[in-house]
Design brief:
Blueprint lengths: L4 H21 L4 H14 L6 H22 L8 H26 L9 H11 L4 H10 L6 H24 L18 H10 L4 H21 L4 H12 L5 H24 L6 H12 L1 H14 L4 H8 L8 H12 L5 H22 L1 H13 L19 E4 L3 H13 L4 E5 L2 H9 L4 E3 L7 H4 L7 E4 L4 H13 L5 E6 L2 H9 L4 E4 L3 H16 L1 H4 L5
Parallel strand pairs: 1-2, 1-4, 2-3, 4-5, 5-6
Length: about 525
């Protein structure tokens, strides 16, 4: 008897929530719980919604790449460490991982395959997961930092290579209409106008879905190209609009919900036997090689040890693209279906191992900093030139709140005020506006080696991501900072957490909006004599 659809929906929603909640309680990212939930559902035989979940998963990946495009600086892809580093890493990884796979086929664990097929599997394993890495960097608020932007650039380059491979492997040449896709650029004024007229509610969210799924992914799929690439391109096209950031926030709930389906769908891909589990565990040991190669290549391009390490760790996993290659291989008759389960398990193991590694990345770097810094080259990457800082008050995070804090401090504090931001573009905008803002990352322990924290009397943490402020407090304390420390938060539990860590002043930007508005209105009222004088009569 077939399980009713409503019961299947209740099952996967319940399993996803319960397993994600348990993972959260255990200090693991919820995505680990979602992976486990998928395998539990598979084990219980609840697979009827596999196709529907896959559709949601595809939408999640599409929206993820669209939001990446909104933030992506295309010029960064031309940086040598991205295009050349990605190419070198993939070529070397493909050969080494392909050799490991071929050796495994000589054992009783896996069936024999030709060496060329083993190299194909190695090629699939050379990719890193876009979904996993971007989710980690986004949660930590590091997408705009040097290591976050570099990791994102590498992932985009990998996606471009994936598009080329899938086009060739399908034996299908894109439609001649693909030559018309550059016309999307000339439609930007129309897209911009729609953004301006869509206000700030559900219509803006629906427009975002239209741009990502229909105008972007749909147009590329229609002409025989990878739809996810279309979503990325569309995000890049409208990313310069002032409303792009708001659009990204509006779509965040949809994206996160759909990505739950992505992690569940991995578990629904199949159940492994003991041999596959052992082979997957061996393949996961090869991630050590992938990580080492990333670190060495980035060091070769004059990255500091810290930036190379923080770029490497989110990329230390296998990619969902491996599943796509496995599906292509099965359909083409190159490999049997067990390879699909093997790649799914290797991907899952890499996520399970990568989640706690990324959660502890700051502590790991602090412990091995001396050892890692031995790999640094004498030259310094242009973005990481030494900082000359003369300030009494530092404002970290020069967004709207940080900018307001900076301006108020300049007027009332009467001492040297300097703003810092981990995004070069933001720094440039403030510098052009006449503000004293420099490039810096408060979460960077090495940053405090470049300056004297003793000279700073006041630090204001105004970064929008709570996790970034938490890490910043930890790094400041490790650096021995003894001055006054203030921070912003959005919820009361975040205020409590920051105060328990020793932050002297925490401002809840949501609860403080009313008081700030009342003071603003009061000042305007008193300044307007027509009303203020009549109230005294």
């Amino acid at each position: 008897m077939e399980t009713p659809i409503w019961l299947v929906d209740c099952a996967w929603i319940s399993f996803a929530f319960i397993c994600g909640f348990i993972a959260k309680i255990g200090k693991f990212p919820p995505l680990i719980g979602f992976l486990v939930a998928g395998f539990l559902l598979n084990g219980l035989g609840i697979r009827q919604q596999g196709a529907a979940l896959q559709e949601l998963a595809d939408l999640g990946v599409t929206l993820l790449l669209f939001t990446i495009g909104l933030k992506l600086d295309v010029k960064s892809l031309l940086r040598r460490e991205i295009w050349l580093g990605t190419s070198l890493h993939m070529m070397i990884s493909t050969v080494v991982l392909g050799g490991v796979v071929f050796l495994l086929t000589l054992t009783p664990l896996l069936g024999r395959v030709p060496f060329v097929t083993a190299v194909l599997i190695g090629f699939a394993l050379s990719f890193s997961s876009t979904v996993f890495a971007i989710k980690i960097l986004e949660d930590r608020g590091e997408l705009n930092a040097l290591h976050g932007a570099t990791a994102m650039g590498i992932l985009v380059m990998q996606d471009i290579i994936a598009v080329v491979f899938l086009t060739i492997s399908a034996g299908k040449i894109p439609s001649v209409w693909a030559l018309a896709l550059p016309l999307l650029y000339f439609l930007r004024p129309l897209f911009f106008k729609l953004l301006e007229l869509s206000d700030h509610g559900e219509l803006l969210a629906l427009l975002g879905l239209f741009l990502a799924i229909v105008a972007g992914a749909g147009s590329f799929e229609l002409v025989g190209l990878k739809p996810d690439l279309g979503a990325l391109v569309m995000g890049i096209l409208i990313g310069t609009h002032p409303k792009a950031k708001e659009l990204g926030y509006t779509l965040m709930g949809f994206k996160n919900l759909f990505l739950v389906a992505f992690f569940l769908s991995i578990g629904l891909s199949g159940l492994p036997d003991a041999k596959i589990l052992v082979a997957a565990a061996i393949l996961c040991l090869c991630i050590i090689f992938k990580s080492w190669l990333f670190f060495r290549l980035l060091s070769m391009f004059n990255f500091r040890a810290r930036s190379a390490f923080f770029t490497t760790v989110p990329l230390s996993n296998y990619s969902e693209f491996g599943l796509i290659v496995a599906v292509v291989g099965v359909k083409s008759g190159w490999i049997d279906g067990s390879w699909l389960i093997l790649v799914a398990m290797a991907l899952t193991f890499s996520f399970v191992g990568g989640a706690p590694l990324n959660s502890s990345v700051y502590d790991i770097y602090a412990r091995f900093r001396t050892f890692l810094k031995r790999c640094e080259k004498p030259g310094v990457h242009p973005v990481e030139l030494p900082i000359e800082l003369d300030a009494d008050l530092l404002v970290f995070g020069m967004g709207r709140i940080g900018t307001g804090t900076y301006e108020a401090a300049k007027e009332t504090y009467g001492r040297k005020v300097v703003g810092l931001d981990s995004c070069k573009d933001v720094v440039g905008q403030h510098t052009d506006a006449g503000r004293d803002v420099i490039f810096g990352d408060v979460t960077d322990l090495d940053f405090w080696d470049k300056i004297s924290p003793e000279q700073v009397r006041f630090v204001a943490l105004c970064m929008p991501q709570h996790e970034a402020n938490i890490v910043a407090v930890e790094q400041l304390q490790k650096a021995g900072y003894q001055g006054f420390l203030a921070a912003t938060a959005r919820y009361e539990d975040q205020v409590t957490e920051l105060k328990n860590m020793g932050v002297h002043s925490v401002y809840n930007v949501f609860s403080g909006v009313g008081a700030a508005y009342a003071e603003y209105a009061r000042n305007d009222f008193l300044a307007n004599t027509e009303f203020s004088d009549s109230s005294k009569k």
